[in-house]
């Protein structure tokens, strides 16, 4: 029985960690005033009729705080990259310089910063829901174990342990939110 509860704990903790990692990945795509190549992570380019991540077909760099420089490895795909970026609805346009692409990121207005904080808050809430779902699933599995031989006292202490995991992960998420919010609102 102890093996089963340990397995449930490990599974719940792993699931919660995955939710936090996903949140961090999503938040890295949200621009906070400085240029970052991670903004382009979700962009796929039609490369010889195959959707390919932009970082697999070009070198990405940030020469200064408001510029992203993209240097394609093959010149013919320059227009495909530009089309993918401009149609991605990220709020900026890619400019062709002949052999490379430059993206000048506009300075964030106060209104745009507040919108970004709302977006971050929304992602954070989704992560918290996911963590709570992991807790619920773990508790459901523990209740099934209770029906097949786990004592009520062991069930209660196992549920308390799952709640501790949940509380720790929620604290992590809140800290991540506060850091990102501060980063966005800093002018």
Question: Brief description of this entry?
Answer:
It contains four helices and six strands. It is an alpha+beta fold.
Number of helical runs? Answer: 4
Q: Overall 3D geometry?
A: elongated
Please compute the radius of gyration using only Cα atoms: 22 Å
| Percent helix | 55-70%
Major sheet description: 4 strands, antiparallel
Terminus-to-terminus distance: 55 Å
Sequence of secondary-structure elements = HEEEEHEEHH
Mean pLDDT: 88
Portion in beta strands: 5-15%
Low-confidence stretches: none
Number of strands: 6
How does the helix and strand content classify structurally?
Answer: alpha+beta
What's the arrangement of strands in the largest beta sheet?
3-4-6-5
Description:
With 187 residues, the chain is α+β, with helices and mostly antiparallel strands. Helices cover 58% and strands 15% of the residues. It contains four helices and six strands, in the order H-E-E-E-E-H-E-E-H-H. It has helices at 2-28, 78-86, 110-147, 152-185, and strands at 44-47, 50-53, 58-64, 67-72, 94-96, 101-104. A four-stranded antiparallel beta sheet has the order 3-4-6-5, with helices on one face. The chain has a two-stranded antiparallel ribbon with strand order 1-2. A hairpin with a 2-residue loop joins strand 3 and strand 4 (67-72). The longest helix is centred in the C-terminal third of the chain and has 38 residues, at 110-147. The radius of gyration is 22 Å and the shape is elongated. The protein starts with a helix and ends with a helix.
């Amino acid at each position: 029985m102890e093996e089963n509860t340990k397995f449930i704990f490990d599974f719940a903790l792993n699931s919660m960690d995955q939710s936090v990692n996903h949140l961090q990945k999503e938040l890295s795509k949200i621009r906070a005033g400085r240029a970052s190549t991670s903004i382009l992570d979700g962009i796929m380019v039609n490369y010889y009729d195959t959707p390919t991540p932009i970082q697999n077909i070009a070198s990405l760099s940030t020469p200064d705080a408001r510029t992203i420089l993209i240097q394609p490895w093959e010149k013919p795909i320059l227009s495909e990259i530009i089309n993918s970026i401009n149609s991605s609805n990220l709020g900026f346009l890619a400019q062709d310089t002949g052999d490379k692409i430059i993206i000048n990121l506009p300075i964030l207005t106060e209104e745009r910063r507040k919108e970004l904080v709302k977006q971050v808050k929304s992602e954070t809430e989704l992560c918290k829901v996911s963590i709570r779902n992991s807790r619920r699933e773990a508790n459901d599995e523990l209740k099934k174990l209770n029906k097949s031989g786990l004592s009520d006292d062991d069930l209660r202490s196992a549920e308390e342990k799952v709640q501790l995991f949940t509380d720790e992960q929620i604290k992590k998420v809140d800290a991540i939110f506060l850091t990102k919010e501060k980063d966005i609102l800093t002018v």
